[in-house]
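Work through this:
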Amino acid sequence: MKLIVGIGNPGVDYDRTRHNVGFEVIDRLARRLAPGEPARSRFNGSTIEVIGDEEKILLLKPLTYVNRTGESLSEAVRFYKLNPAEELLVVVDDVALPCGSIRLRTEGGSGGHNGLENIASHLGSATWSRLRIGIDAPRPGQPLEKHVLERFRPDEQDTIDAACDRAAEAAACWINEGATRTMNEFNPA
């Protein structure tokens, strides 16, 4: 079993915001792996279970808001008795990366992202894969909270859509080929 979690905020007010690129990738992955499969309400989130060639995959969009993502995610990890280091991928926005870039890591810090901090707190570890999608840093003088909750500018939209598509491809590669192969193929040189 593999668990792929997209970080984001629930509700139409947050659709297509910078903080919700994790949800965008989960939606794309669901269309790719389980077209037409309805979402279920489980683990305080929206889930789609996919039966892959070799194992089950659970796609999860927590409905707990970004800062409490660990509550939902840890329920699923405990229920399925998962080893986060091998069986968990978290898709997350990153203000430290240029808009549209993606990067996979198998461990590391939160980079100040409250959702990642909450996950590490609930799991008691920071050793799990995270697929970071660049959303750019705030403009000078712009508060971080405002930046992550705004929608992408029209001149950024094509870039972020392509990044979400590429991130969904990277997540599919992670499922089938593992983290090392995915990093070699998708991380910038």
